[in-house]
Write a structure and sequence with these properties.
This protein has 141 residues and is mainly alpha-helical. It is built from seven helices and no strands. The protein is elongated.
Length: 141
Amino acid sequence: MELQRKGWSQKTIAEALGVTAAAVSRWLATAAAHGPDALLARSRPGAPPKLTPEQKALLPDFLGYGAEAYGFRGEVWTCQRVAQVIEAEYGVRYHRSHVSRLLQQLQWTPQQPRERAAQRDEAAIERWRSQVWPALKKRPK
């Protein structure tokens, strides 16, 4: 609105702001009809969060106990499993797609293991690398 008051055209304002002339036109029409406060940013309406910020902050601690502590087979966390833990701990149901977004907000990536598997056999791995793999590489195609 300030630029328009200075005599700028809608096209020039749009170029300066990196938007379309139609967007500038809408903004100016909204400001003219409802006042300049109508252009201020406001939160989008939507359902309130199901988990409080405190509950959300505790979620990585629960997941830190491991998947087997919650009765799952194996230590792999999936969004479906995390959703089941949230329901068990808080009585709140989330779809697994939303659990993925929730984990991203917490910067928690369950697919990255924090330590090596307990059943890992380093000697067998080294034997395979030194004996089996070279023999496989030598075979003709």
